[in-house]
Amino acid sequence: MHKELNSIKRIREYMVESNQVVLETNNIDNMYGLFHFISNEGEKKFHSLYILNYLYNFIVSDEVAKRKTSARVFEDLLAILLNGQLTDTQSRKNSASDVPDYFGFSKDKIAGNKREKIDILFNNSYGVSVKTLIKSNKEINLGSFEKKILFDGLDILESLTERKSDKNGMGLGSKSQLRKLFEHLQKNNKYDEFRERFVKMFDFIFADDIILAIKDSTKLELYFIKGSEFTKLIEENSYDIENLLTILNRWEGNSIRIDRERLITSTSRKIVLDFSVLDTNIMKQVNDFDELLHINYIKYFHENDNKNIKDEVFTNLTALFENFDKNYGDLS
User: Fold this and answer.
1) CA atoms within 13 A of residue 316's CA, in its CB half-sphere
2) Within a 10 A sphere around the Cβ of 307, how many other Cβ atoms?
3) What is the greatest pairwise CA distance in the chain?
4) Of the candidates 193, 320, 212, which has an alpha carbon nearest to the alpha carbon of residue 258?
5) What Rg, from alpha-carbon coordinates, does the chain have?
6) pLDDT by residue (tens digit) across 197-242?
7) Which residues on adjacent β-strands are paired with residue 215?
8) How confident is the model at residue 321 (pLDDT cuts 50, 70, 90)?
9) 63-85, pLDDT tens digit by residue?
10) Is the Cβ–Cβ distance between 271 and 36 less than 8 Å?
11) Helices 107-115 and 191-205 meet at what angle, rounded to 10?
């Protein structure tokens, strides 16, 4: 874990003391409220600037945005800012007894699909799924969604492949394959049965709220989506094949993938964090000093005249805190 997260943990404690954020996270509106506050304070207050600086350098900048590790770094940050626990550090629990009786003997697999979705848990009761994408990625991988249970008894199990279509052009690997598959079900009076099962699976597996983060060079778009908003979107569009296919893209393996823009339309909770401000405020001086400090750690043990190296550090540190003093009223 980056050492900066220890500083951010302290910042959260100060924010709670000042009643700027809530102590416990209980719903998606608490999360939205925190980032709304950071966004509004971002250009002027040091605590918010520090968080923005971390987001940019370790999650959003072009140097790191495409790394898979940036998604985990974002989850680490959220867990600290929102006072939650990452679920991959604890045993996950979703008992088959929680699954509606509708799913009969498939309860264990359905429970497993749901269990994999939550990334951060709060108060051992409220959970949220976190998705991070780069701007050019228009598709969201929602994770496991058991296709054999979904299509069981509909006489199309031989068509459940995403690599290539069957002889009738049906499959799961593209919209065109899905369209032919759904039309086949409709022609054989089985689409309504499929639709009912599909909606019920979605209602249970994707009941938890979602944070969607889209990384875009000097900006981060954040969407805070209620599970109920998402499942409502699915249900409302499930009656018509073409409407449903504006959301569904394909399966890959046992994972379902959807259109990003359609998910975004299901919520009004949107925050855009702009990192261009970091080049024009105190954080640039903080970053420059941090780089100088670490370089001079190394130089101190390599060069003979290390007194000048030490003096350079103290001179720049003094200048930094003089700037803090000069702008304290605006930054605090």
Assistant:
1) 18
2) 9
3) 86
4) 212
5) 24
6) 999 989 988 999 999 999 998 999 999 999 999 999 999 999 999 9
7) 134, 220
8) very high
9) 999 888 899 999 999 999 999 99
10) yes
11) 50
3-state class (DSSP) for residue 47? helix
Residue at token pair 């394909």: 250
Note the pLDDT tens digit of each residue in 274-305: 998 888 889 999 999 999 999 999 999 988 88
- Gap between the Cα atoms of 11 and 34, Å rounded: 12
Residues 100-112, mean pLDDT to the nearest whole number? 76
At residue 109, what are phi and psi to the nearest 5 degrees?
-70, -40
Amino acid at 164: K
Amino acid occupying residue 75:
E
Cα-based distances in Å from 307 to 304, 310, 312, 314, 321: 9, 5, 9, 11, 21
Q: Give residue-wise pLDDT tens across range 242-261.
A: 999 999 999 998 899 999 99
Question: Which residues, listed in sequence order, are joined to residue 256 by a DSSP beta bridge?
Answer: 143, 251
For the entire predicted model, the pTM comes to 0.90
Q: What is the 3-state secondary structure (H, E, C) of 202-255?
A: HHHHCCCEEEEEEEECCEEEEEEECHHHHHHHHHHHCCCHHHHCCCEEEEECCE
Contact 241, 123 (CB under 8 A): no
Number of H-type helices and E-type strands within the chain: 14, 9
Residue 153: what pLDDT?
A: 87
